[in-house]
Amino acid sequence: MKLPLVPLLAVILSCSIGDATPLVYDTEGHELMSNSSYYILPVEEGGTGGGLKMSYEWKRCNFFVAQARGKAEDGVAVRITPPGASVYDPIFNPVAVHLSTDVTITFDVVTVCVESMYWHISDKSPLSTTSNPRQHVAVGKDEDADMPFPPSPDMLFSIERYDGAVKGYKLVSCNSTGPYENLGLHAFKGKNWLTTSASALVVVFKKGHRYA
């Protein structure tokens, strides 16, 4: 995808001025806030697809996260919630999203399911009953199941700077007791699924319009 000049500079500058203000910025150069929704898009042009979305409902109210096939597709917007965000008043008392801190990620979408569409790490694989060394990012819990509060470790993620050949951010799973694991794309059954991976998917965050 093509990034506006100002947002790209914001990403580059945020990687060069140190961690005095370790915040996460969207493609317009604004801080990510807990009361806004964002599309998670690959930073590189000419990739294999677009933004991230829910795909394959393997059980009622249970999905996996995959990449939209169309390169111009934004996918489904998410809400990113830091621990300091108000549970009871998230819209009018927002907090900024910081780097390297635990966050929960929720698809900002209305479904027939009672529970919110929280991301979490799962040992299950889409369209397969065979074991898979990769852990997939799943969405939602069993219908009518209570969501744990505070969030369980499998629901915690982190946003980190990516300072490789391209500048952007990467998503990290905080599920394990050892080193955090990058989230990347794994091609399987004609789709790119979001999984734990040695190679990180480098992303940017594009502001959604639902709460604009």
Automatic annotation (TrEMBL):
Entries under Gene3D superfamilies matching the protein: 2.80.10.50
Xref: InterPro entries: Kunitz_inhibitor_STI-like_sf, Prot_inh_Kunz-lg
An annotated Gene Ontology molecular function: endopeptidase inhibitor activity
Pfam families: Kunitz_legume (PF00197)
Keyword presence, Signal: yes
Signal peptide: 1-20
Keyword list, A-Z: Signal
Keyword Signal appears in the UniProt entry: yes
Protein name stated in the entry: Uncharacterized protein
Originating organism: Panicum miliaceum (Proso millet)
Phylogenetic placement of the source organism: Eukaryota, Viridiplantae, Streptophyta, Embryophyta, Tracheophyta
